[in-house]
Amino acid sequence: MLSLKFSEFSIETGTDEAGRGCLAGPVTAAAVILPDNFELKLLNDSKKLTEKTREHLRPLIEEMALCYHVTNIEPEVIDEINILNASIKAMQNCITKLNPSPEYIIVDGNRFKPINNIPYSCIIKGDGKYLSIAAASVLAKTYRDEYMNKIHEEFPMYNWKKNKGYPTVEHREAIKKYGITKYHRKSFRLLPDQLEINFEV
């Protein structure tokens, strides 16, 4: 069973990101504040849920949450400030948009930077322990998948609809064949041999 709260504070937000290990597309974060009477039986770490379950949960989370926000950080920003900083920035951006403003933040993973002097804790595998982080993980994942499905229409040869920008064999083969797009993260190791990439796309 996932827990509702980590801290003693009444307004606690959970935050998480999706797409950190991808070669293309944004890193997407969400932050969610849940009410004290929140219950949603199927909710868990988004990686443990099927796509269908995630899609089913997303509107329920949005409806039941006190508030939530989702942010995309685009590849050019990722290339400029690196993926760890971009992930943290995405989570921070979400938190600053929440109303009411949280009194405490719980973050999935082990890295974060303070925002607005709000106390926080980093929790390893937090998306499998706390409902607000699990809810944030579902929103981040579903919003990012939606984005990747949309840009798939623009560049179908990379099959982002299926691989969502992760470094699958199929995605790497397409990079080898077609070069890269404006959605690729140029600072990432896109192929085992970087010299094979055509940056003229």
TrEMBL record:
Task: Give its localization.
Answer: Cytoplasm
Q: Which reaction does it catalyse?
A: Endonucleolytic cleavage to 5'-phosphomonoester
Q: Respond yes or no to whether keyword DNA damage is given for this record.
A: no
- GO BP annotations, alphabetical order: DNA replication, removal of RNA primer; mismatch repair
Asked whether the keyword Zinc-finger is assigned, the reply is: no
Query: Which residues does the UniProt record annotate as the domain RNase H type-2?
Result: 10-200
The record's NCBIfam families line, in alphabetical order, gives: PRK00015.1-3
Pfam families hit by this protein: RNase_HII
Identify the keywords attached in UniProt to this record, alphabetized. Cytoplasm, Endonuclease, Hydrolase, Manganese, Metal-binding, Nuclease
Q: Name one GO cellular component term.
A: cytoplasm
Q: Look up the EC number in the record and give it.
A: 3.1.26.4
Q: Which domain of life is it from?
A: Bacteria
What organism does the UniProt record list as the source? Flavobacterium rakeshii
Name the protein family.
Belongs to the RNase HII family.
User: What binding details are noted for the cofactor?
Assistant: Manganese or magnesium. Binds 1 divalent metal ion per monomer in the absence of substrate. May bind a second metal ion after substrate binding.
Q: What is this protein called?
A: Ribonuclease HII
SUPFAM superfamilies found in the cross-reference section: Ribonuclease H-like
